[in-house]
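WARN no homologs supplied; continuing
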Amino acid sequence: MISYLTRRVAQAIAVVILASFMVFGIMHWLPGDPILIYVTSDQFKQYTAEQIDQLRHEYGLDRPVIVQYADWLGGVFTGDFGKSITRGTSVASDLARALPITLYYGLTAFIFAHLIGIPLGIVCAIRRGKWLDSAITGLANIGMTVPIFWLGIILMYLFSLKLGWLPVGGYTPPTEDLVASLKQLVMPAFCLALGPLAGSTRQTRSAMLDVIHQDYVRTAWAKGLKERAVVTRHVIKNGILPVVTLSGMAIPMVIGGAVLVENVFSVPGMGRLATTALFSKDYAVVQGVVLLVAIIVVFSNLLVDISYGYLDPRVRVS
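OK structure emitted
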């Protein structure tokens, strides 16, 4: 098990370093003069050639790209993601403010999706071909195709403007006002959870149907075991592995969906921070957000690999 964990951790570190290089490279090799990231076009025209060279030296743009990347990566390892060009604030402080908000909404949506989706998938598998199976499967298919930004607008129109049950958007920390925070959480979390919920329902149903037809499950039925015992002891335990894989894939979906949901509901999280920075060409913030999201995705995949090794000992030696 130790060698298995060592391999997975080494692969995760390599992927994070590669992602950091790609993020830095994409930002560095964008069309145009890199110095225009730090000064406006009007200021650039007013500067002399000597002043422009001085600015390049000040911001380190006169050094080789690999040296610039090494300096930036070294700063990342020490918690220094650079400085926001438009606001003049530390990127690390902006990320520290936005990340807990995104995790608050994202983890709530992730937990809700799997607490509801997995039991629904098990029910569909056990009641295959019944009206309940058809109804849940049909709703899951619809849920996977609904655009979350469109769903957010519909929810706002119905529950905020028409019924007045929920606020249109915004964010209140749960430590300040728990009731207001939960009301603001409902619609964004539902939009984020809909896709993973539908996917986990379909995947759980498919995985359970594969296991239900195995010989050992038929033997358990033949022994006269109750339905609950057969499902909990044999079906769920042996059919949960594909669902674990999909759960790991749902984390990037939730984080990526936050870009749309946070802009629709005016939530000051990572998604809205990235969008605002991209439109204002604040590339230091964009680099920090993308790198941090990449780390979260790699870490979630690492957890899936570790859980695989725990649930299925065959994976450890493969």
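The chain is about 75% helix and 0% strand.
OK
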